[in-house]
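A sample follows:
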Amino acid sequence: MTDDPTSSSVQRHQDKSWLHKLVQAFSAEPKSRDELLEVIKEAANNKLLDQEALNIIEGALDVSSRQARELMIPRTQIVAIRIDETPKEFLPKIIESGHSRFPVIGESFDDIKGILLAKDLLRLMLEGTTDFKLEDIIRTANVVPESKRVNVLLREFREKRYHMALVIDEYGGISGLITIEDILEEIVGEIEDETDEEVSDETIKKVGDADYIIKALTPIEDFNDYFKAGLSDEDFDTIGGILMQEFGHLPKRNEVATIDNYQFRVLYADNRQIHLVRLTLMDA
């Protein structure tokens, strides 16, 4: 009994069709980061990914090409503690900043002695110990070059279980610091905790004698009315717009700009715009 020639022909056609599709699939593999991103965006357009997942993937791809110098907190914004300070001198700084880790320095900012963890102070206070020396409780500081790839640094953070690294320039001086949170925020967006500033639906909220929390979308006209100010609204309509012009770039958290007698400190900004600032009246 012989095979049906028609059946054999159909089978060969199906095999060829399957092989053709397989070859096409492999030949269509993205050859660059941009092509890969296009494939992922197409998947999102086809509802295979939601927007949040797309943003995380884009953030992860972006981080893999960044260096520590691009994400670090600049030297001028680092809250540091001197090795010879007493608890009465450094505790207010710890409480005000809300941070959990602090570089401890010696004679100069480039003389790094170690890292102080706020939680280590809690144990001493519970024991009623007040005559301790900082050099007895600080931990070893981790130092990385400005050129350190951020994705490599994130892996080291996870493997070696530390959350902060000091960044040094080509001459060995401290140029900034970077934390695991800084990297994660580049991937998933702003991570707010209980120490972050919060505001209500108000665009301007007074939080101190000379301090205010202001939404970047606040119209300049409203700002001028509230503070009896004279900021120009010829080129921009909002506080965020005039601040972007003043900075000359998209600022990171804690970057400061001064316009007239108003000091603005960025509280929250993502990779697209400023959202929230803290205003201090310089002449108050």
Observations:
- The chain has three domains: 32-65, 69-188, 204-281.
